[in-house]
Design brief:
By secondary structure, the chain is of the alpha/beta class. The chain has a single domain, classed as Ribokinase (UDP-N-acetylmuramoyl-L-alanine:D-glutamate ligase, 3-Layer(aba) Sandwich), CATH 3.40.1190.20. The chain is 26% helix and 26% strand. The chain is built from 8 helices and 15 strands. The strands form 3 sheets. A 9-stranded mixed beta sheet has the order 5-4-1-8-9-12-13-14-15, with helices on both faces. A 4-stranded mixed beta sheet has the order 3-2-6-7. A two-stranded antiparallel sheet has the order 10-11. α5 links the parallel β12 and β13. α1 crosses α6 and α7 crosses α8.
């Protein structure tokens, strides 16, 4: 599996650095590796993030990590407002160049493109439309970084989703309902990504999967103890992708339950250390 995106730094009070490493690319990569997959990750990092201890977790799990050093990487402050997460930004991100993608990874069967701060330019559409050695190619997209903007007042704001080459190529798209503008209806979302299964997550409220003429609701699996929900949606996306690699099917009821179990485990600790193993997910399903 190929994963591409930038590592973010999220401000926290319980870490001596004042921040904790995050970003969809780190969560997706570690999840996939701990579920037993072979993973290569192209990750953009600023100077502080490049030496973060959390990256050691990825490599210890077997992730082949290719760091792309950036002058600027995203820095966020996550704030709970009326039960929903809002973000303030302290730093934006430079672009990750397409040249950072190793030639030997261009035939990966599964590719997760997970921007969080506009770090993947239009040229990255090529990376997901290229061949996969004659095998079926799966393209998963984390929609969050494509449907928000860094407003001048310091808040991260939602923007209406729009059509793109990346969405045209997608097999699976995952986003939180908090990231989708309330006026955007399900029919409009299907029009933007006609080939993809779209899953909209709602935390403890479960979520909904949109397929070809099918709207399937799924239930969340309760966590034993909710500590930190950051990254749960990324864990969910990576687990759904793993389910496709295991079964060849996208967003089936069994796959959604598997992903919900992985996300449930991930919120029971802080940061990347809480990303579950395959054995932990199996235990949660039982």
């Amino acid at each position: 599996m190929l994963v591409v995106g930038v590592a973010s730094r999220d401000l926290v009070a319980d870490d001596p650095r004042g921040w904790r490493l995050g970003g969809a690319a780190t969560y997706c990569s570690l999840t996939a590796a701990r579920l037993g997959l072979r993973v290569g990750c192209v990750v953009g990092v600023d100077r502080s993030a490049s030496t973060a201890d959390e990256l050691d977790l990825l490599e210890a799990a077997g992730v082949d990590l290719r760091r792309v050093e950036l002058e600027r990487g995203p820095v966020f402050e996550n704030i709970e407002v009326d039960g929903h997460r809002r973000q303030r930004w302290l730093s934006k991100s430079d672009l990750i160049p397409l040249a950072a993608l190793p030639d030997e990874w261009k035939t990966a069967r599964a590719r997760l493109i997970v921007p969080v701060a506009g770090e993947l330019g239009d040229e990255w559409a090529w990376a997901v439309t290229g061949g996969a050695g004659g095998a079926e190619c799966f393209v998963g997209v984390g929609w969050q970084g494509m449907i928000r903007e860094f407003a001048a007042d310091g808040w991260v704001e939602r923007v209406p989703p729009s059509r793109s080459q990346l969405l045209d190529a997608a097999s699976l798209i995952v986003a939180s309902l908090d990231d989708i503008e309330g006026a955007t209806n399900l029919t409009r979302l299907r029009e933007l990504a006609p080939r993809a299964s779209i899953v909209l997550t709602a935390g403890a409220g479960g979520g909904v999967a949109l397929g070809e003429g099918v709207v399937r609701r799924y239930h969340a699996i309760p966590a034993v103890d909710l500590i930190d929900a950051t990254g749960a949606g990324d864990v969910f996306l990576a687990a759904l992708t793993a389910a496709w690699l295991f079964t060849g099917q996208i967003a089936t009821p069994a796959a959604l339950r598997f992903a919900a179990a992985a996300a449930s485990c991930s919120v029971e600790g802080a940061g990347l250390a809480a990303v579950p193993t395959r054995a932990q997910v199996a235990a949660r399903l039982r």
